[in-house]
Amino acid sequence: MRVFIIIFCLCTLFGNYSDSKDNIPIKSRLLVPIYLKYGLSLGYDDNVFRFSDSEKNNDDSYSYMGSSETYDSSIIKPTARVLYSPYLFKDKLTNFIFYFNLSSYNEIKDKSNQLYSIRFDYKVGPYNWFKIGYRSTKNNFLRYYTDQDMPGNKYAKCSYDSESIYFSYSFNFNRYGWSRIKFSKSNQFFNPSFTEFDLDILRASINHNYRYKTYSLSITAFKDIANNTSYKSGLNSSHFDRSYNTLGVNASIKKEMNQFLSYIKLGGSISERSYTSQDSSLDALHSKRSHIETSFFIQLSKKIKEKITVDLKYNFIYRDTNSDLDWFDGSFAQNFDIDALKSFKQNQILIKFSYDMEVDLFY
Fold this sequence. Notes:
Elements: H1 2-22, H2 26-30, E1 34-45, H3 53-56, E2 73-84, E3 94-105, E4 113-125, E5 128-146, E6 155-172, E7 178-190, E8 199-212, E9 215-228, E10 244-256, E11 263-275, E12 290-305, E13 308-322, E14 326-329, E15 334-337, H4 338-341, E16 344-359
Antiparallel strand pairs: 1-2, 1-16, 2-3, 3-4, 4-5, 5-6, 6-7, 7-8, 8-9, 9-10, 10-11, 11-12, 12-13, 13-16, 14-15
């Protein structure tokens, strides 16, 4: 938040400096309407815990679910977005965007979480922006695991909080479209029972967009480097290095419609994650392990009134894990095929209702 306070103060100073050039008082630059967008999503997730097929058919999997009696759940997700666009510079658009959502999983209470973010945009020229943002999520629940640092191997809730800061810059290639480069740094802080999983993640991505008539195309390539910051921190469980690298690409195509639908959008992604651990004697679950994750989505959008939009989205995720090792789970005193244990399929469907409104607090 301090970063955005500094940005706002600097922008205000520059705004005052340019005030003599365009004769617009700084007060008038700041007293502009605020645009609000409210949303409510209703949906369903058929594999919240990301169970493999073998886990779904194993009664022991209930140990990973806590008080939940099923691995699927309905979802309710209210959202709010605030857009404030003061005229801080002459002929240059600036935005402050605040966003919040709350995800509630009715059948799996542990999974309910919240997200908020803030972003500052500065428009350099047509399709040419500088953006900086901060994002935080709370209570990203995975499942229940045994705490290897506590005697008795009792199951405990495994969740993490995440925060990230990022900046991006976009370039205008005129009739060839526009591109954006983006860099981010994220931290994942796990709850006290599982601090051995703490991560520091650096991501770099490049995105290109192109529009042809009523079609919009987008493709993004990205690279993640995740460092296990609690590795060898002194706990028994921290002797395993859980760092990894990920390389991936995602793409989408959007078709503008002029009849029943506003638009239809199709997309997908593919990524490969490789764990850096090579010591199979200490960490058979992660050592020399990799997986390929693919996803596909389709989204239909319809504006039913000037300020009301309805979106229907379906998302499919499939993870295929590759490991030459088996993993022995002391809690169940049995070996597991890691390929089968860590591969899964997941289906999600959401319908979202959005309402746009303008709030003019100053007139």
